Structures are given as structure tokens and as C-alpha cells.
């Protein structure tokens, strides 16, 4: 009897990852085109990302991506100002 239970548990353990990975694959986005990747890089650079600054690499990219995401969420166009102003003085 215990061998039947062990076989059933083993079958369930094997089946669960196969089913969950099939669901994950069905929601994946198609690969980006070269033009889309270039456009993303332009957006990141406009948001302050410098690909040559490798010392602070992950933090710089993550901060720029957060700014791009915030602009897209707000429907904003161009760099954010954060309420700052400049005078002609």
C-alpha cells in the first residue's frame, strides 16, 4: 500500500512543475526586435542611464528603468521635472 502512495506522490511531484511551466510559457512575450531594443536604450539614456558607467551598473540601470516606468505610467512625455524651476538669472 505504501508503494502505491509513494508512486502517487512521485507522479504528482513530477507533474506539477510540467504543468506550471506550460502556463508560464503561454504568457511570455515575443522576443523584441532590434528597433524596440534601441528605442528602450534611447528611453533609458534620456532618463539618466549611462551605459559607460559600469561602477554603479545595476543601480543606475534600475533607477533609470524606474523613471521610464513612472513616465509611462503617468502618460508623461519627456524627462520629469520633479517640481523644479529655473530662472534666467
Describe this structure in words.
By secondary structure, the chain is mostly helical. The chain has a domain at 33-78. It has helices at residues 2-26, 34-46, 57-74. The chain is extended. The mean pLDDT is 75.
Tags for this model:
single chain; 89 residues; mainly alpha
Q: How are the SSEs ordered, and which strands pair?
A:
Layout: H1 2-26, H2 34-46, H3 57-74
| Contiguous helical run count | 3
Number of strands: 0
How can the largest sheet be summarized?
Answer: none
Average of pLDDT: 75
* CA gyration radius, whole angstroms: 24 Å
Percent range of helical residues: 55-70%
Q: What low-confidence regions span 5 or more consecutive residues with pLDDT below 50?
A: none
Terminus-to-terminus distance: 88 Å
Order of helices and strands: HHH
**Structural class based on helices, strands and sheet pairing:** mainly alpha
Dominant shape: extended
User: How much of the polypeptide forms β-strand, as a percent range?
Assistant: under 5%
Amino acid at each position: 500500500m505504501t508503494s502505491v502512495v509513494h508512486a502517487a506522490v512521485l507522479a504528482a511531484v513530477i507533474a506539477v512543475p510540467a504543468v506550471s511551466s506550460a502556463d508560464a510559457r503561454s504568457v511570455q512575450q515575443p522576443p523584441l526586435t532590434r528597433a524596440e531594443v534601441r528605442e528602450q536604450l534611447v528611453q533609458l539614456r534620456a532618463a539618466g542611464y549611462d551605459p559607460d558607467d559600469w561602477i554603479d551598473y545595476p543601480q543606475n540601470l534600475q533607477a533609470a528603468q524606474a523613471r521610464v516606468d513612472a513616465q509611462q505610467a503617468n502618460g508623461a512625455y519627456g524627462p520629469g521635472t520633479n517640481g523644479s524651476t529655473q530662472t534666467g538669472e
